[in-house]
Design brief:
The complex is a heterodimer of chains A (112) and B (113). Chain A has 112 residues and is mostly beta strands. In chain A, 0% of the residues lie in helices and 52% in strands. In chain B, a hairpin with a 5-residue loop joins strand 5 and strand 6. The chains are: A mainly beta (112), B mainly beta (113).
Amino acid sequence: EPEVTQTPSHQVTQMGQEVILRCVPISNHLYFYWYRQILGQKVEFLVSFYNNEISEKSEIFDDQFSVERPDGSNFTLKIRSTKLEDSAMYFCASVTVNTEAFFGQGTRLTVV
Amino acid sequence: AQSVTQLGSHVSVSEGALVLLRCNYSSSVPPYLFWYVQYPNQGLQLLLKYTSAATLVKGINGFEAEFKKSETSFHLTKPSAHMSDAAEYFCAVTLTAGNQFYFGTGTSLTVIP
């Protein structure tokens, strides 16, 4: 069964550093999302991506964040100048035309 | 805008008892509704989805949910709880592919042996 793959599973970074979270979505899906979940809190939408451009973004997704699909398959989330409050689980999802979202296992980002 | 409200952040049931996790939605147009399960330190796994077909939706692991438009509800049920059902459950709503999914705050299910 196809699945969404995220790497790394856990990333520890120093405050102020840049991190890149990677996702390989399911190949024939069209819509891709990034969500985050701060420990013990709700799942929050960051950004959606369609046809190689951002289709929707939340107020959380400010200039500190960027997304790319550099090679037509991988889907990355870059966080510049990380802050302590960026520590969270980051989930990638790819969505079918039938509006079924498949989530990856997540990357746990710890900013120290 | 759409939203979902999950009543009860923690639910405890005895093994073999009925599981009922509540979700109410708000949407100006017919929504797509989902239940996801999250086991500790894992991702979100789709349990079931409602996409305007049958109002009673059956999912994996014996779970089902009923879409009730008059009550704007999409409660998740399972007739008999199993220890392996202990997890966090999230209700979510979206309008269509390409729109963001709005998640509820989650319900933590504990199953007592």
